[in-house]
Amino acid sequence: MSFAEPTHTSPVPGNFVPGGFVFVVSGPSGAGKGTLVERLLQERPDCIFAVSSTTRPKRANETDGVEYRFVTRSEFESQREQGRFLEWAEVHGQLYGTPLLEVETHVRHGRVVVLDIDVQGGANVRRLRPDSVGVFVTPPSLEALRKRLKLRATDTPEVIEQRMQNAPGELAEYVNYDYLIVNDDREKAVAALIAVHDAERARINRLILER
Fold this sequence. Notes:
It is a single chain. The protein is 38% helix and 23% strand. Helix 1 packs across helix 7 (186-201) and helix 5 runs antiparallel to helix 6 (157-171). The protein has a single domain (20-201), classed as Rossmann fold (3-Layer(aba) Sandwich), CATH 3.40.50.300. It has a five-stranded parallel β-sheet with strand order 3-8-2-9-10, with helices on both faces. A four-stranded mixed β-sheet has the order 5-4-7-6. By secondary structure, the protein is an alpha/beta fold.
């Protein structure tokens, strides 16, 4: 069998650079998605974390401007009215919002913008950015989730119960995401998240011809 000679000159793959995209990581509180995202940021320098604004109280192990930007409810509502959020949602009585300008700027510059957001926020991002990639992180069981929430010792028993009551509904949302990672082994889960990043980074429809 012989093949015809090509009738046109195609650019070699080396002339392409990957384009940026929004990388959404969701899951119930206590599933371990924050730890996975932290490792992804360490392993892949093209990733940047979009720091969300929230009205919830700062935990003892958190730094303002790192995990979240902690604001008052009136400040949040003012930013929302100014259209400064890509998405926002109210979760467990607190407001959370992803900064629009930061996300758009980094995507235009070819970065992977990582969002650690709840399922409400994930749904909003899918609606506004259908080109985004969604990963759902789930614990191996509800019993494991409860144990993790207690071990991290950042919530009151009442808040833990509220999170556990909401967990089944959140877990059911996995069907709306592109990938599912069961976080029963941290290193395997980290490897899976990095593998998703690498595969999506190499998608043909994300490659941009460098001139």
